[in-house]
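Inverse folding, one chain.
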């Protein structure tokens, strides 16, 4: 397998790197809101997460608040070397270590606090006492934000495995830690998949997830100007001296890669630093390169099976539902062609999908379902159905978790949390409430010959394949 030379991109990034995306993140942090940053494999999301570690970047985005902002970049990949990598002790120790190092770098009074935090971290490593480690982390954070103007942004990068494997108590602890210092402490999770695809539903996960679910940002491919800037940085570090990359070459590489950071870098090196990028059969040549296949595989590995199936349908020029297209557009995987029709963002990924998969699947016969949270309406097969607040909450719990099973108790919790619904007055027991609501949903959302809500042997319910 051919390896891509590992250029140190982060060290040479301009202060304005991904300015729009980082600006969107900062606007939420300044408002005291946590958020979730999602990007497919090799999209450059870690560069986005690391960039505000630089003082000049914080000054650009935070302005007058930069001096009062403590930016903590927590690399969750570091957890993999721990004996219990996704325990509370391991994560709190990593947070405490990162906090101590960051404060020491800031210097002054914070630097002295960082030295103290570093000593606490060393003790935590030896004693492996989760409660004590969390206590020292909390003590340090409290000292940092004792200044009323100071804020802490804690970014949890590459935390897919952490979210997937975290015990409920850890997620509850993260939520509680944030609540203790609200709004002076905010989180940002950086993952390949959306958080609700990474962890089974539970009250603890819901409590943590609701901090981030209202502020989900996707890492899009580079714009043309951003892509040309990246290629210029790569060309500046060529062995044997820098060589300017002709603009026509940069635009050709951008066109075939769609601006995906990993594909763009792979294509640059696969074409001998752009020397063969103007070949008429460029796409075919690149598709024969192992490093291109590796990058396409990273993208697909980031997706759930539904998203992969939707992309494969597009590769075969089949019609995808509006819901699928909306989701894939958010991830930057679908754009419009010159005729305004949806297409996969890069011909390299399209051809990889066609080469790696069997003949096209049969066209889906599932009805198109479009929920509208603001009106509690569901459009199904072009028919608009009005639901009550409780009915809509239970419908969305089943629909968004499909094809997973949702427990009866979880459905009841969601319904009862809404307060009084005129259609379901207080006084009904949880079991009766859920059963009555599902009976009404089955009557209202009626698709001939199909059953949308299925009871499972464990007493839960799931959305059926007919509604996929």
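Residues assigned per position:
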């Amino acid at each position: 397998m051919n390896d891509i030379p590992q250029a140190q991109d982060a060290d040479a990034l301009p202060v304005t790197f991904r300015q729009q995306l980082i600006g969107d993140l900062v606007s939420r942090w300044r408002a005291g809101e946590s958020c979730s940053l999602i990007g497919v494999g090799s999209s450059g999301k870690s560069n986005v997460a690391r960039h505000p570690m630089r003082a000049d970047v914080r000054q650009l985005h935070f302005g007058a608040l930069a001096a009062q902002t403590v930016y903590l970049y927590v690399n969750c990949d570091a957890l993999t070397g721990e004996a219990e990598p996704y325990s509370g002790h391991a994560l709190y120790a990593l947070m405490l270590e990162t906090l101590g190092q960051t404060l020491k770098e800031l210097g002054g009074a914070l630097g002295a606090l960082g030295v103290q935090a570093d000593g606490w971290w060393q003790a935590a490593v030896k004693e492996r006492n989760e409660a004590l480690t969390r206590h020292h982390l909390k003590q340090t954070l409290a000292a940092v934000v004792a200044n009323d103007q100071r804020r802490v942004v804690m970014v949890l990068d590459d935390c897919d495995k952490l979210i997937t494997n975290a015990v409920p108590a850890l997620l509850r602890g993260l939520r509680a830690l944030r609540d203790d210092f609200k709004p002076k402490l905010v989180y940002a999770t950086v993952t390949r998949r959306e958080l609700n695809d990474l962890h089974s539903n539970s009250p603890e996960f819901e409590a943590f997830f609701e901090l981030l679910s209202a502020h989900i940002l996707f890492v899009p491919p580079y714009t043309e100007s951003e892509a040309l800037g990246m290629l210029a940085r790569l060309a500046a570090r060529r062995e044997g001296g820098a060589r300017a990359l002709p603009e026509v070459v940069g635009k050709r590489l951008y066109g075939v890669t769609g601006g995906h950071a990993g594909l763009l870098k792979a294509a640059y090196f696969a074409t001998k630093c752009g020397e063969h990028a103007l070949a008429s059969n460029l796409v075919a040549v690149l598709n024969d390169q192992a490093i291109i296949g590796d990058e396409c595989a990273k993208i697909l590995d980031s997706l759930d099976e539904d998203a992969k199936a939707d992309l494969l349908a597009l590769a075969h020029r089949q019609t995808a539902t509006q819901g699928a297209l909306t989701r894939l557009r958010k991830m930057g995987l679908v754009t419009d062609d010159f005729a305004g029709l949806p297409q996969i963002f890069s011909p390299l990924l399209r051809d990889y999908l066609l080469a790696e998969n069997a003949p096209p699947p049969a066209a889906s016969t599932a009805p198109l379902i479009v929920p509208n949270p603001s009106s509690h309406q569901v459009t199904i097969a072009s028919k608009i159905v009005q639901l009550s607040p409780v009915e809509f909450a239970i419908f969305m719990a089943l629909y968004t978790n499909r094809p997973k099973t949702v427990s009866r108790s979880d459905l009841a919790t969601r319904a009862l949390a809404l307060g009084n619904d005129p259609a379901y007055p207080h006084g009904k027991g949880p079991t009766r409430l859920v059963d009555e609501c599902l009976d009404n949903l089955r009557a209202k959302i009626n698709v001939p010959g199909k059953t949308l809500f299925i009871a499972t042997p464990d007493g839960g319910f799931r959305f059926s394949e007919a509604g996929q």
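Confidence is low (pLDDT under 50) at residues 1-11. The two ends are 38 Å apart (CA to CA).
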